[in-house]
Amino acid sequence: MIPVPTLHITLLVTHLASQEQVDLAATVLAEAEPSLTELLGGRDLVLPFSGIGHFRKEVVFVGLAPGQHRHTLDSLAELLQSRFEEQGLLQEGNRGFEPHLTMMKLSRAPKLRSQGMKRVDPALYSNYTNKFFGDQTVERVDLCSMLKKKQQDGYYHTETSLQLGGHRRSEPDEAELLRVSRRLVEDAVNRALLQYKQETLQNGGGPNATAPQPPGNTDETKTDTTANSTTDYRK
Predict the structure, then answer these.
(1) What CATH number was assigned to the domain covering residues 4-205+212-225?
(2) Phi, psi dihedrals of residue 15, rounded to the nearest 5°
(3) Where is the A-kinase anchor protein 7 RI-RII subunit-binding domain (predicted)?
């Protein structure tokens, strides 16, 4: 089962090979705000989750009911994918978008797979294939890392976020401040370690084998929407 704090809808997945590309992706997301605001027209994007489906019986997900919200979400994803492509951050042909809320993945259960379970029997959730699970309002778009350590609340490491809809907060909440401060500390440490390594090499020496090495900057990054109700699982 997918932990509740990590529930999200993926808008795109890309590979960012350096911190410079991560920073560029954050800039692209920020610069898309006026277009996203115009797209939403001051309205909240409310997603009605209904029914359960699967991908090759290996991934089980909650789907979206049909309606105008789906068109809006498709347009939002298309806009961001175009902006990322324009900056060379997304390869052409990687635009497949099928919004879903993953709730179960066999790839997360190696023990079951080792026991011979290769498919999830649809009979297990047959009573819920047409069930309406409720509405969720999309509050923001997150630029997340799939490789970095998850945050304290269990959600993906978040590089930056863009608030959406008609209920913007005038001030960042405590969770947002914590994310920003943690990211600033991590960036400062990474820069200090990189500078130390460069200075050591310039002085004709090699980095000490026991000294801490700068963490790799290769990153798999995805852009998500996060839908929250009264229970706040935000980063």
Answers:
(1) 3.90.1140.10
(2) -115, 120
(3) 171-204
